[in-house]
From TrEMBL:
Top-level taxonomy: Bacteria, Bacillati, Bacillota, Bacilli, Bacillales
Protein name: DUF951 domain-containing protein
Organism the protein comes from: Exiguobacterium chiriqhucha RW-2
Domain of life: Bacteria
PANTHER family the UniProt entry points to: DUF951 DOMAIN-CONTAINING PROTEIN, HYPOTHETICAL CYTOSOLIC PROTEIN
Amino acid sequence: MQAKSYELNDFVEMKKPHACQTNRWQVTRVGMDIRIKCQGCGASVLMPRRDFDKRLKKVLKQENAAE
């Protein structure tokens, strides 16, 4: 299975919504761990890349797409 392409500052949709019922997140840190920020309530979640890849549904908007 090929990993989905995401980069810093991209907006992503996860398989399950956050407790605030928003399913739009911004990637704020990329490395061995991925940090995402909820666009509804501003909560920040840090998770291992492997878990993030399993929970990622799709990339909504790529920051570099405007170039």
